[in-house]
Amino acid sequence: MNNLKVAIIEDEVPAARLLHSMLRRLRPAWEVMVLPGSVEEAVQWFAENPHPDLLFLDIQLSDGDSFNFLTSARPSSVIIFTTAYDQYAIRAFTVNSVDYILKPVDEKRLLEAIVKYETLVAANTSPENGYLDVILDSLRHREKAYRTRFLIAGGERFRPLEVSDVAYFYSENKITFAVTYTGQEHIVDLSLNKLVEQLDPDQFFRANRQVLLCVKAISHVEPYFNGRIVVFVKPSYKSQIIISEEKITAFKLWLNF
């Protein structure tokens, strides 16, 4: 398998780099490339290039999810899914040669998926006809799954950050920060708009353009000028979190006022 061509489609740069380095370490003879992490660009690449033998595909991409990509690109590659979502939400995709790996990727788990693929190839076994349609059907009828963790950089290493540890997110100078309940701040490689799409709306509310907060972080709320309210959180945010008059009804419903 020295000439094996492997591609990674992953919208989070740290996660893509980590997976790439692990694959190069575990299988140095493989030709591993990182493709664009958006549906549009990935579909275009597959239309213009020979399909790789093996594809590591993130469930959630920057401009959509893997359902959109698979429907348009119809890759001939064997697929191993990577996901930050709960394993039960992705278990349905484990058909034939398909496997899934929870992010942040563990090297031992990655090796298991690689060996599974190599065993398939050594046995000269191909995915059953229509297996891609089985995956698409699973994606089409899946229950909504929400992100449970992030991969964050710490020096030259990466480590997981659980969503349950995050009190709120805020955006500053086009950079998104996650603030934990212990007051630590971490850069997250996703915009607030993308976070709103990927996080449980029962737990997180978009207070304004700058802040996305978790219900557990709220200590109390107070009336503010012109029919607005101000939200106080723990740990405290560096400025006031104002809920506009237009959002108050939705905010109260979210809090079950």
Automatic annotation (TrEMBL):
<dbReference type="Pfam" id="PF04397">
    <property type="entry name" value="LytTR"/>
</dbReference>
<keyword id="KW-0597">Phosphoprotein</keyword>
<dbReference type="Pfam" id="PF00072">
    <property type="entry name" value="Response_reg"/>
</dbReference>
<dbReference type="InterPro" id="IPR046947">
    <property type="entry name" value="LytR-like"/>
</dbReference>
<dbReference type="InterPro" id="IPR011006">
    <property type="entry name" value="CheY-like_superfamily"/>
</dbReference>
<keyword id="KW-0238">DNA-binding</keyword>
<feature type="domain" description="Response regulatory">
    <location>
        <begin position="5"/>
        <end position="118"/>
    </location>
</feature>
<dbReference type="GO" id="GO:0003677">
    <property type="term" value="F:DNA binding"/>
</dbReference>
<protein>
    <submittedName>
        <fullName>DNA-binding LytR/AlgR family response regulator</fullName>
    </submittedName>
</protein>
<dbReference type="InterPro" id="IPR007492">
    <property type="entry name" value="LytTR_DNA-bd_dom"/>
</dbReference>
<feature type="domain" description="HTH LytTR-type">
    <location>
        <begin position="150"/>
        <end position="257"/>
    </location>
</feature>
<dbReference type="GO" id="GO:0000156">
    <property type="term" value="F:phosphorelay response regulator activity"/>
</dbReference>
<dbReference type="InterPro" id="IPR001789">
    <property type="entry name" value="Sig_transdc_resp-reg_receiver"/>
</dbReference>
<feature type="modified residue" description="4-aspartylphosphate">
    <location>
        <position position="58"/>
    </location>
</feature>
